[in-house]
Amino acid sequence: MKTIFTAIFIILLLSACTKTLDIKLRSTEPKIVIQGNVTNSGGPYYIRINKTVDFDANNEYPPVVNATVSVLDSNTRRVDYYKYTGVNGYYISNNLFGQVGHTYKLTVTVDGETYTASSTMPNFVGINQLDFVQTKILNKTRILPQVTFTDPAYEKNYYVFSLAVNNVTYKAFYAVDDRLTDGNEMVQQLYMDSSYIQKRDFVTVILSSVDKNVYNYFNVLQANSGASPTTPSNPPSNISNGAYGYFGAEAVSMVSQSF
Question: In Å, how far are 45, 141, 183 from 151, measured between CA atoms?
């Protein structure tokens, strides 16, 4: 069981299969939380399904183990049925392979209730360069990762960045759009609160091109990370029937480099 969990953990963090998050939600009764995506990097993909707890309870959401989970590729009309892994609410795909431009529909059934979401995978945008830059924070010199990429012109683009240091995920993400930078080269510095790059650290950065709904979800979570931890606003889920979480079709680019 430990081996299975470790394998899932590495795939999720370094292959960008799923940005699973442990977040506090304002809920007074248990609700379903669904998190998962399909990417262009190849499967397997994971959907994680849990139930919320009271807001002031321990932030450990119990797993849902009896769900029926499927993803339809609306372009090919092929349906892939996910299987429960036996670990922490994770369901795994069988034969699905994500493609740019395809629309994917998630269907989850739990205890007679059905939850759906749909997402279209945007065009691929690759990372051009990963650098490390010095910056002054609280009068101390810190090293931060910085990503350069080229935004496609004449189309609306939304991005979510995530990173890992020495194969350990950094528990933050960065949601940006091209509202003021359409068609330009973009430079994104990935600020790390209280944790910084040291010599010989191995850094992995993932750029995910996402649709507007997924961007909105992570943008609110990003804003909440700077707010009081007792009064977050629930992020806008793209999943039906009152479920929390998100489902996204994402074109991902990943770069790794040692400092």
Answer: 27, 30, 5
**Preceding omega of 44 cis (within 30 degrees of 0):** yes
Q: Which domain holds residue 26?
A: 2-122+236-250
Beta strands in 9-138 (DSSP E): 32-39, 46-51, 68-73, 78-84, 90-92, 103-110, 113-120, 127-137
CATH number at residue 81: 2.60.40.3780
Buried b (16+ CB within 10 A) or exposed e, 59-70: eebebbeebebb
Considering the domain boundaries, does residue 259 fall inside one?
no
The total of structural domains in the chain comes to 1
The answer to whether the pTM exceeds 0.70 is yes
Which DSSP string do the residues of 201-236 spell out, in sequence order?
-EEEEEEEEE-HHHHHHHHHHHHHTTS-TTSPPPP-
pLDDT digits (tens, 9 = 90+) for 90-122: 999 999 999 999 999 999 999 999 999 999 999
Q: How far is residue 244's CA from residue 230's CA, in Å, rounded to a whole number?
A: 18
Q: Is residue 18 part of a domain?
A: yes
